[in-house]
Amino acid sequence: MATTANRSVSARQAKYGATASLYTLVVIAALILVNWLGNRYNKSFDTTSNKQFTLSDQSKKIVQGLKSDATIVYLDRPSGFATAKATLDRYANLSSKVHVQYVDVVRNPTVAASYGVRYPGTAVVQIGQRREEAKAISEEGLTGAFVKDLKGVRKVCFVQGSGEHQLDETQGAGLSQLKTLLDRDNYQSQAVTLIDKTQVPADCTALVIAGPRNDYTPNEVTAVKNYVENGGRAMFLLDPPLDFQRQHIAENKGLTDLLASWGVVLNKDLVLEQNPVGQIVGVGPEVPLVSKYESQPIVNDLKNRYTGLPVTRSLDVKSGGGKATVEKLFSTTDSAIATAKLNSNEVNPADPSNKKGPFLLGVAGTYNTGKPANPGRFVVIGTSGFLDNSMLHFQSNPDLALNAVNWLTSDEDLISIRPKETQDRRLNVTQRQMNVFAYADLIALPLIIIVAGVSIFLKRR
Question: Which of 254, 295, 395, 446 has an alpha carbon within 20 to 30 A of 401's alpha carbon?
């Protein structure tokens, strides 16, 4: 009997041992498989509200559109590799054409010198024979280096001399913040004058006329006309011709007549938005909120987003624009009105002479130069205020401004919603609320756990 019992126990122990060994092997195999898959298919999930750790559509378009291999060379001390790896891996995971190399600047000083790197913690993007140093180990810096390698230098020229917004002005009416954004997209911004010139400088990739307060001379108008009709690219931001108190904005008949010859009519009116949505975001009726966009590339990615266009006039598109083809960009809601009384800062919404919305506020056009590979392009918007320092970062205004420049310079692959800035989502609480949190964390929760443990212990006994 004892022998039979011993055999039964031994068999049972052998069975349990074999089962435990099998489970152990299965667990080890599963861990090996998970680690292998994790190493081969690196996948992360961004749970932040504004997708702070996800590359923007702009970066995805550029990287996934690569036609040749690109290498990101990161030069640093080994202790700094881990810090940069998360950012660099996001680019490598987008495309098999992107490779990342890590160079130890201590062990390989010659290699670092060959890249012209002066400081550890620098990344260089190399595509073919072109190398470009990233300004920072961030999406803006790395994507900017890709753009420079692929596109080269493009110059955006801002016309000055007739009361336009100043490029380097840091106050509310200046364009210094727009200049910074253009620099991130690797555009060089430069102020130019046309009064003493017969043509737009040849190195201008695009020309911006941002809110002139005075009339352009015939010489300036002719220079702009010849520029666009010979394949140049220009943005016209012409404010309504207000004339009251300190507001004196010229009609600029030369420019408006030029645009009319291309099929764009700038009306002498002021558009006011009566939709109460503006009050929610803190703007008045003089800042129409636009959310109705057409399918043109400049605004195609702005669907379901707002842009604010302060002190704007309405536009009309007419047929018979000669060699120009004009597309609508965006319009107001039906609740907007437009007044032609521009010599007073008081508007009566019930005035029967007011026009009823919706109103067209922006258009984009193409001029047939006879050279299919080199058409002229132009964008016309009834206000310049949406891209000055006081309004540029309102809602989707920066995307509208940069998308327009991208389209003008034929950089359609850059048109997208840009990376979002880090949000400050701090929780502000009173001292009483802090005391409630402290009592809950330090007393209530531990006490609940202790009571539950004692209850289970007594129940089991």
Answer: 254
Contact 424, 250 (CB under 8 A): no
CA distance 343 to 353: 15
Tell me if the pTM is above 0.70.
yes
How many domains, in total, are found in the chain?
4
Residue 458: domain span? 427-461
Q: In what order do the strands lie in the sheet with 122-127?
A: 98-104, 70-76, 122-127, 130-133
Q: CB neighbours of 407 closer than 8 A, spacing ≥ 6?
A: 297, 298, 364, 377, 379, 415
Q: What distance, in Å, lies between the first and last C-alpha atoms of the chain?
A: 36
What pLDDT, on the 0 to 100 scale, is given for residue 352? Answer: 86
* Pick from 325, 341, 330, 238: nearest CA to 288: 330
For residue 182, the tally of other CB atoms under 10 A from its CB is: 23
Domain-located, residue 51: no
Query: DSSP 3-state helix, strand, coil percentages of the chain (rounded to 5)?
Result: 35, 20, 45
Q: What is the pLDDT of residue 45?
A: 56
Task: Determine how many CB atoms are found less than 10 A away from the CB of residue 65.
Answer: 11
The helix or strand, by DSSP H or E, that contains position 81, with its residue range, turns out to be helix 81-92
Alpha-carbon gap, residue 106 to 84, rounded angstroms? 17
Q: Is 92 found in the same domain as 12?
A: no
- pLDDT tens digit string along 244-269? 878 899 999 999 999 999 999 999 99
Report which of 121, 71, 59, 114 is spatially closest to residue 96, judged by C-alpha positions.
71
